[in-house]
Amino acid sequence: MRPLVRTAALSGYVELCRSLGVDPQALMKRVGLDTAALAVQDRWISGAAAVQVLELSAAASGHEDFGVLMAEFRRFSNLGPVSLVVREEPDVRNALGLLIRHQHMYNEVLHTRLSEGDGLATLKVDLRLGEAMEARQATELAVAAYHRILRGFLHTRWQPLSVWFRHSAPADAASHRRVFGPIVEFGREFDGIVFYADDLDAPNAMADPLLREYARQYFETIAVPKDTTVADRVRELIEALLPSGRCSVEQVARSLGVDRRTVHRHLASSGETFSSLLNTTRMHLAEQFVANPRRSLTEISDLLGFSSLSAFSRWFREQFGCSPRAWRSDRSRQQLPAQD
Description:
- Residues 232-330 form the HTH araC/xylS-type domain.
- This protein is of the alpha+beta class.
- It has helices at residues 13-19, 24-30, 47-61, 66-71, 82-86, 92-101, 136-153, 174-180, 209-222, 230-241, 249-256, 260-269, 274-290, 297-303, 309-320, 324-334, and strands at 4-6, 44-46, 110-117, 120-127, 162-165, 184-186, 192-196.
């Protein structure tokens, strides 16, 4: 089944379209949606359709910043019932953790991860649509929405250390700088926000301690459990363990608190093996890392858990049909603007 999103994901869409002089109904009709559905924000619609209509709207309006502009219409309540309990968590760590843990309740496309290291916190945003499609606007909308949420938790003048996007910079990045500040960067290796880990321990500015228990009790009656498979958990562990050089099925099994045979058995039931997950995870990360000219190939080899640069180069050629240097060069040429 393809992932769905609540209609609240398109909150502010109609108003923004009209302000930019485009017809929202005509654009939504092209992807099988109707503006009338947006009147009830708890309805579920196709995630792919929501992503597509944002791309169409950016093109029709001539605004590459469409997703960023739309985020400015967002309110915390657009998150639905989960917002009631998240806003009462005592600190940013608990509030953000709860929001991420239950993101499937408001958006099945959105996959967000929070990691910490060397005094920094990194919030990575990933959109999983089940098919390849352009998602620049939806990505910028999601990152900008998280930026607004973090400001709500902390302070309206709070700024992260950096905001990263994998895609190239727009022709005019004025709206991005206005929303995120001068720290927004494009052509990086992931989409997300980097900030000081100490911010996670800051008190949640929205919280009312007297309401927390009431909010928790209410949420427990409506919370929908997420069906996280063993394969999902193994993928996450592989990505976390690769840079350490200790990514093995034994290490993953220990992290899960089971033996290796149990891991193999669960993966086999979903048609996967540890080797297949390791390889697909490496391929996914390799595409991100090699496309970034700031990363040396030696550094990428280490991040992907290879024993040497030559071993990484051999593997890359087997998977992509060319050397990583040639792949990077070809990717750079594809991103050059067309000459008149």
